[in-house]
Design brief:
Length: 389
């Protein structure tokens, strides 16, 4: 019997003040003064978790991530009850990492202290930029000074594990402006920084009405200069767009990329779970919940429960699925782990690896599957070369 991977929990809060034009997440704008159905949603989340408990198979939670939407629209009392309800249903690791995403534009003074008291020990602030003109173009509802004030309040509330989300490749952005954003972020001494390029995703306002983005040469310059500056500042890159100080890598993100399991509760939440064994090892299923918040709340009284769909990953898909995750990590994955997870022989992979190495997309290491810096930039090209279907 193969051992099961670690287990995490993702909780989705689908509401935000205003839908940003670049956002393709399951988020629903409600305006600034909306009254959210906290009590009903709390009840629904715990009922959703009750339905998923058999999938935990006795494992403890190693991390918990609350994302959105804008989770900081919900009160501290909501999270105190939610975390108590989760702890009553599932064991938690003694050092569990519990992350809450927060928007600097939705914070009432003192709310961070309540979140910390509720048991949340890591914050992820959606800053995106410190320049007010860029924030307005991105549809954000906060200013650069709001972001700096939010960090100060988080520190005052006792948070010593803080991530800042910062975008680059913004409309009209120059390398100098991108570096200015990074300098203002670094001045706040975050333990973790997610620095990622703006992309125009389908089904977003930006996709249907695209803004003028920087030319490709400018984007390369921004990436090169930014990577160098973050490393110089002591934030080591460990994933395509993630940088951290020693011991502060995001456990939840690492669990994703290392192909761990995670339950997903909340409107539109996704999960990935290992089940029985097949010829390639553990059988893996992806599951997702009802997407629309109102429909999700109604499912409490529906015998169908909260599940909207499921997909069993076929053995022919497994090599690509696993590689898509593992190769996002700078450290990559050992070939022995690749073989035991995918059920494919290294001999079948070797010809493809040789081609990828000749193109400079892989590190020269006979024992690891590890993208080179060039491979991280052109990950889709690398994955196409090692796709085993």
């Amino acid at each position: 019997m193969m051992s099961l991977p670690p287990l995490a929990l993702y909780v989705h809060v689908p509401w935000c003040v205003r839908k940003c034009p670049y956002c393709d997440f399951n988020s629903h704008g409600v305006g600034r003064n909306a009254s959210l159905p906290e009590a009903d949603y709390l009840q629904a989340l715990l009922a959703d978790l009750d339905g998923d408990l058999p999938l935990a198979q006795g494992r403890e939670l190693v991390c918990l991530f609350i994302g959105g939407g804008t989770p900081s629209l919900m009160s501290a009392g909501f999270y105190k009850e939610l975390l108590a309800g989760i702890a009553a249903r599932l064991p938690m690791a003694n050092d569990i990492e519990i992350t809450l995403e927060a928007n600097p534009g939705t914070l009432e003074r003192g709310r961070f202290a309540g979140y910390r008291e509720a048991g949340i020990n890591r914050l992820s602030l959606g800053v995106q930029s410190f320049q007010d003109a860029q924030l307005e173009a991105l549809g954000r509802i906060h200013s650069g000074s709001d972001a700096e004030a939010a960090v100060a309040e988080a520190r005052g509330a006792g948070f010593d594990n803080l991530n800042l989300d910062v975008m680059h490749g913004l409309p009209g952005q120059t390398p100098a402006l991108a570096l200015e954003d990074l300098e203002r972020a670094l001045a706040l001494s975050p333990e973790h920084l997610s620095w990622y390029q703006l992309t125009l995703e389908p089904n977003t306002e930006f996709h249907s009405r695209p803004p003028q983005l920087p030319e490709e040469e400018v984007l390369w310059d921004i990436q090169d200069l930014g990577h160098a500056r973050l490393e110089e500042a002591g934030l080591a890159r460990y994933e395509i767009s993630a940088y951290a100080r020693s011991g502060r890598r995001s456990r939840h993100n690492l669990n994703y990329w290392r192909f761990g399991d995670y339950l997903g509760i909340g409107a539109g939440a996704h999960g990935k779970l290992s089940a029985g064994e097949g010829s390639a090892g553990l059988m893996i299923e992806r599951r997702w919940k009802v997407r629309q918040p109102e429909a999700y709340l109604r499912r409490q009284r529906d015998p169908r429960g909260f599940l909207a769909g499921r997909h069993r990953i076929e053995e022919s898909e497994l090599a690509l699925e696993f590689s898509m995750n593992a190769l996002r990590l700078v450290e990559g994955v050992s070939l022995s782990r690749w073989r035991t997870t995918t059920g494919r022989s290294i001999a079948m992979l070797e010809a493809r690896l040789s081609s990828a190495r000749k193109k400079g997309l892989l590190v020269e290491d006979a024992n690891r599957l590890q993208a080179s810096p060039q491979g991280l930039l052109f990950l889709n090209d690398l994955l196409a070369l090692i796709d085993m279907e």
